[in-house]
Design brief:
This protein has 270 residues and is of the alpha+beta class. The radius of gyration is 21 Å and the shape is globular. The strands form three sheets. A six-stranded antiparallel sheet has the order 8-9-10-11-7-12, with no helix packed on it. Strands 5-4-13-6 form a four-stranded antiparallel sheet, with no helix packed on it. Strands 1-2-3 form a three-stranded antiparallel sheet. It contains six helices and 13 strands. This is MnmG N-terminal domain-containing protein. Keywords: FAD, Flavoprotein. Its cofactor is FAD. Pfam families: GIDA.
Length: 270
């Protein structure tokens, strides 16, 4: 399916500017803690600072923040994303409304300092030439493109991961939610596909200036020391400096059977 590498920082700046310039839109930064309901209808949203916004409609898009817990090996702490708080109160509010919540988990990859990666020894993975836009309203993309690079795991890495499965919360049973179907952790791959001698990892720049590398394919909840050892054994990352360690995050979600086709909840109007 179509996929694009976007500069994270530039995209965030662009979207913030787009929102600020949208007519009749007021942006408020606050932590929502409660949705007030009367007669099975939405009436207001209450925030952590005590403010309340009366409304007839609420769109909840919490991502991984509802009751989020971050794991790196045996380490765990509340968080919705790295260095950002989770929202336990909103989870409780949704339960009190009468919605059933389940538990899901996903994991991330380590972020590396691009200057410390030996990208020159790796296979270059260029994008489409010419790049194909997603939108029919875009005639062409003429900006300079940045490639990705391909590396591979090996049998030494696979043995290291198998020897440390008891230290990964996704494998040890500390996290009971199911592993993601489409982005499985590297420790899951070496168990599910034990016959494979290598797995491909894409080293993807997170910005046009190529400062940070995202290791697509090296999703893991392994402890820090194991992540470091894996990188030392993988071509191109032998001397890489880790900017952010990979982590797993488990969080609450609302099973979609409780939603109408319009995505409004069946139980509550608004």
């Amino acid at each position: 399916s179509p996929r694009a590498q976007a500069d994270r920082r530039k995209y965030a700046e662009y979207m913030q500017q787009a929102l600020e310039q949208t007519a009749d839109l007021t942006i408020v930064e606050a932590l929502a803690t409660e949705i007030k309901i009367e007669d099975d209808k939405v009436r207001a949203v209450v925030c952590k600072d005590g403010s309340m916004y009366r409304t007839q409609t609420v769109v909840v898009t919490p991502g991984t923040f509802l009751g989020g817990i971050i794991w790196i090996g045996d380490e765990k702490w509340a968080g919705g994303r790295l260095d950002e708080p989770s929202s336990a109160e909103l989870s409780q509010s949704l339960k009190q409304i009468g919605l059933e919540l389940g538990r899901m988990v996903t994991d991330t990859t380590p972020r590396l300092d691009a200057k410390t990666c030996d990208l020159g020894k790796l296979q270059v993975q260029p994008g489409d030439d010419p790049p194909v836009p997603f939108s029919f309203m875009t005639e062409k993309i003429d900006r300079q493109q940045v490639p990705c690079w391909i590396t591979y795991t090996n049998e030494k890495i696979h043995k290291l991961l198998r020897d440390n499965l008891h230290r990964a919360p996704l494998s040890s049973g500390q996290i009971t939610a199911a592993d993601p179907r489409y982005c499985p952790s590297i420790e899951s791959k070496v168990v599910r596909f034990a016959d494979k001698k290598q797995h491909r990892v894409f080293l993807e720049p997170e910005e046009e200036s190529i400062k940070t590398i995202y290791c697509n394919g090296f999703f893991t909840s392994m402890p820090r020391d194991v992540q470091e050892q894996v990188l030392k054994l993988m071509p191109g990352t032998e001397n890489a400096r880790i900017i952010h360690y990979a982590y797993a995050i488990e969080y609450d979600y609302c099973p979609p059977i409780q939603l109408k086709s319009s995505l409004e909840t069946k139980k509550i109007w608004g």
